[in-house]
Specification:
Elements (H helix, E strand, L loop, with lengths): L3 E5 L7 H9 L4 E5 L15 E4 L13 H14 L3 E4 L1 H9 L4 E16 L2 H7 L5 E12 L6 E5 L7 E5 L4 E5 L7 H9 L1 H13 L8 H4 L3 H20 L5
Length: 244
């Protein structure tokens, strides 16, 4: 089988649970380290699937790799290669398919409840519970592409997840970070810039949608273990559509 390609935009926004899951499945993969100057491929022909990770930048920023990554996603769609986008990756996926990416009314940082909007689709991708505690860290929000179906929402950000079905595969865009591990959470909450962002957003929003660092890392092991349970459901479903 062709490898899965992981597009990593920043050094501290690694693939986390996604990488460990596909390794456990003994699937070949390679990582494009955008932050280190790796070029975005011009074609998706060589890949079984594309995973786009998060990043602190906006999908609307004037960065040299954004248009090539959008072009790669469109090429993947033409070739039957499934895409999965985490946070920024989900925003790039939405933009590649014609939806807007805008500043959200509220930042979301920390653990928050995401509710099911489309029970049948949610059951297929993440489970039958009516809501889930997932990890957030974003200030932008994606629109839903014309042929996308939204199935998760939240109090502070309506568009949390969408699927573009292509049969037999599907593209998945997520606003949340399903890939988080204890190491990633600790890294982000101990970074001075991250701490500053949390403190400023907490004060500005009076605590709505944003948690302090001590709350984010409280019961970190069981929380990330439960998050990984949901991640594995999502990844298992997405992997069914890999290009052989």
């Amino acid at each position: 089988m062709r490898p899965i390609v992981i597009v990593q935009h920043e050094a501290d926004t690694g693939p986390g649970r996604f990488e460990s899951y596909i390794q456990h499945q003994q699937l070949a993969h390679q990582t494009i380290r955008v932050f280190a100057g790796d070029p975005i491929p011009a074609s998706a022909e060589a890949y079984a699937g594309i995973c786009s990770l998060g990043g602190s930048m906006s999908a609307n920023d004037d960065l040299p790799w954004i248009e090539p990554e959008l072009a790669l996603m469109r090429d993947a769609d033409k070739r039957g290669v499934p895409i999965i986008g985490h946070c920024l990756g989900g925003q790039l996926l939405a933009k590649a398919f014609g939806a807007s990416v805008t500043r959200a009314a509220m930042k979301e940082i920390g653990w928050g409840t995401v509710a099911v909007e489309d029970p049948a689709l949610a059951h297929e991708w993440i489970g039958s519970e009516p809501s889930f505690e997932l990890f957030q860290w974003h200030e932008d929000s994606f629109g839903i592409p014309a042929d996308g179906r939204r199935f998760l929402t939240s109090q502070f950000c309506a568009n949390q997840a969408f699927v573009i079905e292509r049969k037999p595969h599907a593209h998945l865009g997520m606003q949340f970070h399903i890939e988080m591990t204890p190491q990633l959470v600790t890294c982000w909450t101990s970074d001075p810039n991250g701490v500053r962002e949390i403190d400023e957003a907490f004060r500005r929003q009076r605590g709505a949608g944003v948690q302090r660092c001590d709350e984010i890392v409280r019961e970190l092991e069981p929380r990330t273990r439960q998050l990984s349970h949901y991640a594995d459901r999502i990844y298992q479903r997405w992997l069914r559509g890999l290009r052989r």
